[in-house]
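Hi Q.,

Before the meeting this afternoon, I wanted you to have the molybdenum atom prediction in hand. No need to reply - just skim if you have a minute. The sequence and ligand are here:
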Amino acid sequence: MKRRDFLKFSGAVCAALASLSLDSKFVKTVSASTMRKDLPGSLGAEEIPSVCDMCFWRCPIVAKVKDGQVVKIEGNPRSPANGTAICARGNAGIQFLYDKDRLKYPLKRAGARGEGKWVRISWDEALDEIAYNIKKVKEKYGPHALAFFDHGSSAAFFREIFEALGTENFSNEPAFFQCVGPNLLAYLYTLGYQAVDPAKVDMAEAKVIILFGSHLGENVQVSLVKSMVEGLAQGAKLIVVDPRFSVAAGKADIWLPIRPGTDLALLLAWINYVIQHDLYDREFVQNHTYGFEKLKKAVQKYSLSWAAEICDLPEEDIRKAIDLLARHRPHVCIHPGRHSAWYGSQDVNRHRAMAILTGLLGTVGVKGGFYFPTEPPLEKVSFLAGEHEEIEPPETSLKDDYPFAELFHGSPTAEIIKATRTGEPYPIKLWGVCGVNVIQTIPNPYQTMEAIKKLDFIFCVDILPTESVLWADIVLPDATYLERYDGFYVGKETRCYVALRQPAVKPLFESRPAYEIAKDLAKRLGLKPRYERVEDWLEAQLKPSGHSLKELKKTGLFTYPAKPYRSREELSFNTDSGKFEFYSEAFADEDLPPLPEPDFAPAPPKGYARLLYGRVPVHTFAKTMNNVWLHFEWPENHLWVNDEVAKRLGLKTGDEVILENQDGYRSERPVKIFVTPGIRPDAVYLPHGFGSRSPMLKTAYGHGVSDTFLVTHYEQDPFMGASSHRNNFVRFIKDGKVLSIPELRPVPKELSRFEIRKRV
Ligand SMILES: Nc1nc2c(c(=O)[nH]1)N[C@H]1C(S)=C(S)[C@@H](COP(=O)(O)OP(=O)(O)OC[C@H]3O[C@@H](n4cnc5c(=O)[nH]c(N)nc54)[C@H](O)[C@@H]3O)O[C@H]1N2
Ligand SMILES: Nc1nc2c(c(=O)[nH]1)N[C@H]1C(S)=C(S)[C@@H](COP(=O)(O)OP(=O)(O)OC[C@H]3O[C@@H](n4cnc5c(=O)[nH]c(N)nc54)[C@H](O)[C@@H]3O)O[C@H]1N2
Ligand code: SF4
Ligand SMILES: [Mo]
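Predicted structure with the ligand bound:
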């Protein structure tokens, strides 16, 4: 399919999705009575600046409050990042706050784990019980029998508590082991700083932008999307490498619908091409990099035609793309992506190769390229006072096989779950969970549930009764971001700022801000919170800035001078060699590849297509599925199926199929398919977050299909132990019959094929 044919399709894709969204089922579910009609208008409302927490990007906002209710949310006009703009989810924060299904009181389990039967208890009873169980488990099994799963701002306080208790087992923050870990590690060991949060690419000033996956537009971060749109409006060319015709691909000048799992072939061939054709930045390479000759030698056998066959792309298109990038250097953005726990062993190397290409093109510290982050004038002030004992590692650590896991302090999620299930290398008997939907987030939820059954005790701090919360012995209702203070948000972009996160209204029901909950728990465990009042903790951090909390309560944020660009003379890198590292001695020392090597995901087993997933713009994972406004916009997910495949199977848009994965697990209900040439025939695509399994989430429950429950196979990367999500395959069941996916693209001999294990 040629690009222009696809372009015709992009309109059709949007129209089709919009019409599919207007499905009769959800229109019935979201009746007018479930929408809040009683919100007064925002005219004359008090304006309280804060920060959005509907996703992890944290756009500065203004909450408009009238008669004690938040009636509207807008972007903070002072924000150099998003300005007055916020996204649909930001707007719908109101419905998160007023969600009728919110957790209202502390609860204690009264039925079996997973049943969601509880009795209401007091805060004192709930915290006493948690503290009692923590002490009991620690005494009986030692500190490492305690594990904490954390994500988001509330979790930070509890993480300090678990660290102070001496366990090596906390996981996720900020989604390291399921999300961004391999990406962070790759860039840290190449140019000495992390490339994300937000992506350190100056797209507004770029001449060419390239995205590997990174489905911006569906992956929504207001300032990033704005910066990409600004770049495109000023004539930047866009190259998108994605097996799917994503929203970004719809804007692309060159779309490369790559065979999933083969990006490393493309990158290695491009690196070689740039070197062989002398298209690289000689001055940068000579003066600022380490290991060029080794790199040159290692990649010399990778030709464009070799890559074309492995990636299943036209050689001509590959050449055009790299010529375009090289011609416009250094003002080109090789976007580092974010979510990187894709395939396992290749994940760090793939991002290393992206970073290396960035270095070869000398696009570092320049306008329209990679920029440097600038640290804020804030003092780091811990939540707990006093020196804590160093964590005494256990005889066999969960990190032993992963030399770089230490960088992320905690232990790989998959290892914590394994140890909990098996008791090896040591028992884990208590889990604390805050801000993570462990069942919808971590590969193989069946193992996660099996692990929870083995625990002596589990508590969850959450806002909503999610499927994970249903498994808790004690549930603590956190206040939402619109009802609490959180740590400052620091925007280290090309323009930098520090934003205050403050409450707009008082906590509803008996919910309490995480700071307060953590403080009372810490005291029960013999730990000492540094400040009684969260405001004092915030004020202490502001000291070096010259700004006061009083002032920030009014303005919401202050900016500080950024230094994103560097002249060549000023360049220095925070790496072992002080240079931009093509070759990593640190990796070599650990017997890990010091240079990226070819490493491809095995092709689908015969009869199956690879299961890919991603975001829809109006939802954040599973967290927003119960939000009535957002549910109304996008109530269920649809499975993208290639048109040729659908034709062969006699399927059309709107047909329903059950999905069965390579391990024999089936989707909980049929999913509607969306037939399109905008996905390769060897893959299908299912947006993530749908398919809630908690009946207590009355809006979300029963809508769509969960990708996670089909992700039963994962591989861990050898550097840090992140667990992959994209090594799973599905076929269809329709009217009780198995529909095998026809193989329409040849699989070259370099690629192995995924072997189906013993079926369950
Ligand atoms: N609306 C919304 N936005 C979000 C979030 C959200 O929940 N909702 N979550 C945020 C978070 S935490 C994250 S980490 C990011 C995630 O968003 P990204 O970092 O953009 O995630 P990716 O996995 O890079 O992108 C998904 C795309 O990768 C493509 N893809 C799949 N396999 C391959 C492959 O082998 N090669 C290539 N080149 N492409 C492939 C898929 O077709 C899909 O279009 O989104 C963030 N933004
Ligand atoms: N199959 C599959 N798995 C994935 C992904 C995927 O695309 N597909 N994406 C991966 C990525 S990129 C990431 S970053 C992770 C994200 O994984 P998670 O962060 O676990 O994502 P959510 O599903 O949004 O779960 C957030 C949980 O926090 C709760 N919560 C929300 N706000 C608050 C709050 O203010 N306080 C408290 N205490 N709790 C709150 C929500 O109710 C929910 O239970 O998932 C990863 N796992
Ligand atoms: S991108 Fe949207 S949901 Fe995320 S912080 Fe910004 S406004 Fe909120
Ligand atoms: Mo993520």
